[in-house]
Design a protein that fits this description.
Length: 372
């Protein structure tokens, strides 16, 4: 590699390091988990794994690798049946599986909005939605987070067919989108609403769209399986025509190896396990109430498993994170560029398996830091 290129890359890394924003890979350490998306503990639930292992034992053919695009050799009767299962569970017409939520958003936003259309994006939507939009020739306009007046103002001026992109539960804020109002507003302007349910799926039943019976009024929903569902992958839920269109035109679906059967069967297994263990939702809500009782400042929703505690200043945030880690309390320090400079925060993710003692320990430290 040319020395001047390496020098340029090193310079970018040193700049980041100087600003306290360097990203590095770390391994999971033993301690209290306040940072993973495994809200219900399914990812390491032995009973859930036993159920999966028993079905794999009877069906070793499910261990076969992906082998090719789903349009070539990578499709199977199992994957199709799991998609039918997902669609039936969510009471939607069809479901299409993807290897990740990132890929699902890339597929949807790169392929559906066309030149002369306009995509209206909540300013806090996930990077995968933004990257999907970058691949589309449609115009893109951001509106202020959860601000319906601002969105309406933008809709009134927008050109062509309009698409609205939101998350039902925001990943860095832990607050909820006003789904009923959004559906009504989209309806008034003939816009198509797309809802990313990555963090709500599994935490609130099958997501907030399904919970509120809004499937018919939302153009498409993205659910992911690597968070509360304890597995991996994602599905786009929509009308049959939309799914057939994606199969024909979405490059991130066509030009990649299909999701292996093992992933599909794990997803189905975890849906079934969750149905058999509804208490996990209540356990999680109980832990959220326990955290909230400490009265820390947060702008997150009262029932949200994501509680964002403002902690402005990169250096201060790093010191808080380090201090918590020294007590084996693992949270996620959200720094720029993930959020704007000045709006740094500590993201506390709560889980059905967190103990009240762990929560007490964490909130006591945070309260002391906040009060001093
Ligand atoms: C809101 C949102 N959408 C999509 C994704 C991507 O999902 P996946 O991790 O399955 O790629 C994430 C992941 O962090 C997310 O938070």
């Amino acid at each position: 590699m040319r020395d001047d290129l390496l020098a340029r890359l090193s310079q970018a890394l040193s700049d980041r390091e100087e600003r306290g924003m360097l990203r590095t890979l770390r391994t999971r350490e033993p301690g209290a988990d306040f940072y993973s998306n495994d809200y219900l503990g399914l990812a390491s639930n032995n009973a859930c794994h036993e159920m999966l292992l028993a079905s794999l034992h009877d069906n070793p053919q499910w261990l076969r690798g992906g082998t090719g695009s789903r349009l070539v050799s990578g499709n199977s009767a199992l994957t199709l049946s799991v998609e039918d299962f997902i669609a039936a569970e969510h009471q939607t017409e069809r479901a299409l599986l993807f290897p990740s939520g990132y890929m699902a958003n890339l597929a949807l936003f790169s392929c559906l909005p066309k030149r002369n259309d306009t995509i209206l994006l909540d300013e806090f939507v996930h990077r995968s939605v933004l990257d999907g939009c970058r691949l589309s020739f449609a115009g893109k306009i951001r509106f202020q987070h959860n601000d319906l007046d601002h969105l309406e103002n933008r809709l009134a001026k927008a050109k062509g067919k309009c698409w609205i992109a939101v998350e039902s539960l925001y990943s860095m804020e832990g607050d909820f989108a006003p789904l009923h109002d959004l559906v009504a507003l989209a309806g008034r302007y003939g816009a198509s609403l797309i809802v990313d349910e990555a963090h709500a799926m599994g935490v609130f039943g099958y997501g907030l769209v399904c919970d509120a019976h809004l499937q018919e009024r939302v153009f498409a929903t993205i659910v992911t399986y690597g968070k509360a569902m304890g597995a991996h992958g994602a599905a786009i839920l929509s009308h049959g025509t939309v799914i057939d269109y994606l199969i024909n035109f979405a490059a991130p679906f066509i030009y990649t190896t299909g999701l292996p059967d093992l992933f599909a069967v794990t997803i189905r297994n975890n849906y079934t396990f969750l149905k058999m263990n509804p208490h996990l939702h209540e356990d999680l809500q109980d832990r959220i109430r326990h955290f909230s009782a400490a009265g820390l400042p947060t702008f997150s929703g009262a029932r949200s498993p994501i509680q964002a505690v403002p902690c402005p200043g990169i250096a201060r945030l790093a010191a808080v994170e380090e201090m918590l880690e020294s007590q084996s309390l693992f949270t996620f320090a959200v720094r720029p560029p993930t959020v704007k400079e000045g709006s740094e925060r500590l993201r506390v993710s709560l889980h059905a398996f967190n103990t009240n003692e762990e929560i007490r320990q964490l909130t006591a430290i945070l309260k002391e830091l906040h009060d001093n």
